[in-house]
Amino acid sequence: MADRVRTIGVGVIGTGFIGKAHSIAYSAVSSVFGAGLRPTLEIVCDLSPERAADRAADLGFDRYTDQWQELIDDPGVELISICAPNALHRDMSVAALEAGKHVWCEKPMAMSLADAEDMVTAARSSSRKTIVGYNYIKNPAVTHAQRLISDGRIGRVTGFHGRYDVDNEADENQPYSWRLSRERSGTGAIADILSHLLSVAHFITGSEVSNVAADIDVVHRHRPDPTDSSASREVDNDDTVAALVHFANGAHGTLGASRVNWGRKCGLRWEVHGSRGTITHDQERLNELRLFTAEDDPSIAGFRTILTGPEHPPYSAFLPRGGHTLGYMDVKICELHQLLQAIENNTRAWPDFEAAVAIERVMDQVERSALDQRWLQI
Ligand SMILES: NC(=O)c1ccc[n+]([C@@H]2O[C@H](COP(=O)([O-])OP(=O)(O)OC[C@H]3O[C@@H](n4cnc5c(N)ncnc54)[C@H](O)[C@@H]3O)[C@@H](O)[C@H]2O)c1
Q1: What pLDDT, on the 0 to 100 scale, is given for residue 284?
Q2: For residue 5, what pLDDT is reported?
Q3: Total structural domains in the chain?
Q4: Which single residue of 53, 123, 189, 302 has CA 20 to 30 Å from 107?
Q5: pLDDT below 50 — which residues of the chain?
Q6: Rounded Cα–Cα distance for residues 213 and 378 (Å)
Q7: Residue among 12, 13, 18 whose CB has most ligand 1 atoms within 8 A, to mutate
């Protein structure tokens, strides 16, 4: 075993939704993928010593702290997960890279394009690896779609249309939280969910959004104050966004996202049109891909459903038979595995800070376009 496995000490900052997911991925990745870098859960950080201690016990970390700088300086840590709210991503990422650590940062990269560019500068000055948590493009079904497209199975890509809707904030009586604050989250639906859709759009089309005409709205302007039930707080970032887009490769499309659409839980749906076919996907049925190809005999042509299985790497790392289905956590493990491989083989992970800043550029222009009410070039 000594020859096959080298360990890598990891630290996780923030232990909410996604910090827990990172921690589970670190625990599981070597069981799924076998030989390679094996993470050891060194230290976890959260806002208070009590919460950090509880999370260390729950998630299996050796040490805990409520000071993120202490985690970054910990000599046992080589790889750091940044799973705190958006406002902290820039400072934590830059500090981690300057301390010589690899960084797995959650999306969006930062609160502004300028902050994201600072992160790119820090990454360029470091030999360490980075990746941004755009997990949906690590789903074997989505990777398979990208492969079918690059193999020419739907011809020339002519259009991409997608939405990412959730109902996390649909209840207008739900109390105010950091995601509804421009100061703590940056933009709203744009940063939180349109960013994921953009990662899919760029990955699937093999191109980037080049022009945009967007519209944004705050649907529920006031929310109950969580600390004072008789008071309310003003929401100052977007609940919904819609955009017409052009891609650099000539394809056109529409993109939309909303955090206030009832019934949509993880409603990331998209379709890509080509000169010889169409592929569609829905994250709420994440093991399925639907393909229509004009190459079929017209008398039996129709959308076929491709169910993810061992033919679609890296599904077989998890399960030997198709149809047993993967889930969100498995996809997060795939993302981590790609980062560990990049560290081990000294290659680039995708999207690293350099690549993911393209998404931040589009997000920035989406908001500007909506405020200026005009088409903008990225
Ligand atoms: N890739 C995905 O699918 C996905 C899903 C959810 C969230 N996210 C991203 O992950 C980040 C966190 O979101 P979340 O849903 O986990 O939020 P959350 O509110 O559930 O958790 C945030 C955690 O960070 C901790 N925290 C806050 N300030 C801190 C500080 N100064 N030092 C240490 N810890 C601190 C909080 O106590 C909490 O444990 C966001 O950037 C979000 O966009 C990504």
Answers
A1: 98
A2: 74
A3: 2
A4: 53
A5: 1
A6: 11
A7: 18
